[in-house]
Amino acid sequence: MNIWIMRHGEASFSASSDSERTLTPFGIEMAKKQGQWLGNRLNQAKIQLDKILVSPYLRTQQTLEAVKLGLQAVGFSQSFTNLVETWEEITPDGNQSLVVDYLDFLRDEGAKNVLLISHLPLVFDLVCALTHDQSQVHFYPAVMAELCWQGKIARLTHTEIPRN
């Protein structure tokens, strides 16, 4: 299974709660560029996404919308209908073991390509858990880690850092 784990784009701090923080204009642009990178990667390998898991927080939902725009901008034409699952367990304090178990379930059900958009510290913890602490990623806003998960241990194959 290929898994792309992405932290949301740059977010503002002015909101009445953490879940209501919005992306900055720069954060939207970063997420769109990451969508373009991912779209080129998917197009080149001729693969489709099987599932997109996204936190219910506003900044991750906005990140997903910007990623979709980036995907579409490079000609990635897959429909997103029935692909996106908003999941409460991938908020900042999500349980990494539960997420790994769900990814394992998706893999058992035949999923081969999953995009997950979430927050620190969960994105960092997931990479460490999936690679059995063999890899770590500095998850600045909009950073995306690409993992190949065959068997019990995932291998970090690429880290994409958004460019200005």
Automatic annotation (TrEMBL):
SUPFAM superfamilies on file: Phosphoglycerate mutase-like (SSF53254)
Family matches, as Pfam families: His_Phos_1 (PF00300)
Matches recorded under SMART domains: PGAM (SM00855)
Protein name, entry field: Phosphohistidine phosphatase SixA
Taxon lineage: Bacteria, Pseudomonadati, Pseudomonadota, Gammaproteobacteria, Pasteurellales
